[in-house]
Amino acid sequence: MAERSTAAVDVADNSGDEPLAAETAQATADGVDTQNGQASDGTMPEKDADRRKAAPAAAPELHSGHKLARRYRLEECVTRVDGFSSWRAMDEKLRRAVGVHLLPADHARARSVLAAARSSALLGDPRFVQVLDAVEENDLVYVVHEWLPDATELTAVLAAGPMEPHEAYQLVSQVSQAMAAAHREGLAHLRLTPSAILRTSTGQYRIRGLAVNAALRGITSETPQRADTEAIGALLYASLTQRWPYENDAYGLTGLPKGVGLIAPDQVRAGVHRGLGELAMRALANDGATASRQEPACTTPEELSKAVAAMPRIRPPEPTFTAPPEYQHTTYQQGSYGRPPSPGLPTAQVLTVVPPPAPLQSRTGRALKWGVAALLIAALGLGSWQLADNLLDRRHQGSNGGSQSTHPKADDAPEKKEPAFLTITDAREYYPDGTPQDLEGAKSTFDKDVTTYWHTKSYLDGPDMKEEFKAGVGIIYDLGSEQAVSGGSIALKYAGDHTTATLYAAPSMSSSTPVASMRKIATKTTSDSSLELSSETPATTRYVLVWITAMPESGTDAFSGPGFKQAITDVKFTG
């Protein structure tokens, strides 16, 4: 099943690089003020005389509407500085927004930019904004990358205030783990600024400009791991204090007081999480800070990620609820109200009669006595009759056709319970071949919003997927704990001939476990936009894989051209 894509290094199918809400343009991502060319950390990178001699006087004179490779239509220039330009563009073949870096082929850094982009593309780690194409053509070098319109730049997040501890923990954990993986492949970033970090709508952090941003700026380092570790420490410091841990103001943040050096985060702002503050100092020790508690400095992203993992777990903040209004309780005279009902009698039939305080001797009194006695006898009789009736009803349950027999049949089956929907706590795309479909969309399949969905790419052959090209596509769901899973309900975006899906009991949410080693729960094929799967024998598992091996043909949409494809709008599991 061949995929509809001709990009040289195409590893994703949607979104784009910088979220172009003015403040998140590529100029900010590179730390450059496009008005005066000054870096946002107060320095003047590459504006000295030597740099001017090394680079051409200006980037190629391109304009909106210009098309590269008969495919990428330039739409808006977001920065033009130092001999290169960055654009928001449209990939007309796949109908998606992309970002493009452009520079002349004879630019002093053209070769290093091409090499950095191609190395970054080979990493294929979804935690990084992906390079989709890196080409030299017609005296131009251009790098095409993802565009993430729904992501928020860390610069904007910090402008709103410091992060609460759990969010700061997620930031340093995800970024340090991602950079540790990059350095294991020999790749460094060297420009890890707040504008290089994007927070998606699902709370995940994506890193843009791996290797490429530094190559565009001509930045190198003899100790790249230390440089990136210190940069992560600065990000954590800023997230805890809303201050940049150096004397110069940068990225919309105020720097530290001049002449006092680097001070601990809890001395800058009260209430800073102690463990995270110490972690920031250990990472910033590369710049002369003193690590707290005499613990060693973290000099590599790998060491920093291990230090984060060794910390006590930081729980997310408890949700706040508004207390319901208090209701005044009506006070009744002491009697039958408020007393527990007698065991064995229905609550509504309990009746307490309070006798008069003194015997009545008159004729009227005797009449009242007999009246009260009659009421008491009637109440007891009514209660006894209702109790007997309830007991008979229970004995009659399970009898056929309303039979009056009081003896249940020996072969009567127990009443069958209705299946209950299981709670889904998380979802992650499953792609054992290393090529994901829509990483950010997996969580949209259980958010109870049918307008959001996870989608596949568009394929030329179908409806059955070809084993030799791509065996299937799917999502693994986390139920929070082990549950007895008996089936599922899947709402699909596209109907037609035909969709086949199978439920498997998975050991974890990892894509490294092959489908062949998982236990099959149920499988079914449909030509409708919904799929109901059930199994006579439930499987006890915490993780459930929805594995699609056939998809209907559909026309062009916002994500891809015509072809065989499918999208999941909602998933429920029964147990």
List keywords for this structure.
globular; eight-stranded antiparallel beta sheet; 575 residues; Transferase(Phosphotransferase), domain 1; alpha+beta; six-stranded antiparallel beta sheet; Jelly Rolls; disordered N terminus
Description:
The protein is of the alpha+beta class. It folds into three domains: 121 residues, Phosphorylase Kinase, domain 1; 158 residues, Transferase(Phosphotransferase) domain 1 (Transferase(Phosphotransferase), domain 1), CATH 1.10.510.10; 154 residues, Galactose-binding domain-like (Jelly Rolls), CATH 2.60.120.260. It contains eleven helices and 21 strands. Strands 12, 13, 14, 15, 16, 17, 18 and 21 form an eight-stranded antiparallel beta sheet that branches. It has a six-stranded antiparallel beta sheet with strand order 1-2-3-4-6-5, with helices on one face. A three-stranded antiparallel beta sheet has the order 7-8-9. Helix 5 runs antiparallel to helix 7, helix 5 runs antiparallel to helix 10 and helix 7 runs antiparallel to helix 9. The N terminus is likely disordered.
The CATH architecture classification of the largest domain is Orthogonal Bundle
| CA-based gyration radius | 34 Å
**Main beta-sheet strand count, sense and barrel state:** 8 strands, antiparallel
What is the beta-strand fraction?
15-25%
Q: Could you report the average pLDDT, rounded to the nearest whole number?
A: 79
The tally of beta strands, per DSSP, is 21
CATH fold naming of the largest domain: Transferase(Phosphotransferase), domain 1
Q: Assembly state here?
A: single chain
Low-confidence stretches: 2-59, 327-354, 398-411
**Helix residue percentage:** 10-25%
How many domains, as an integer?
Answer: 3
Total helix count? 11
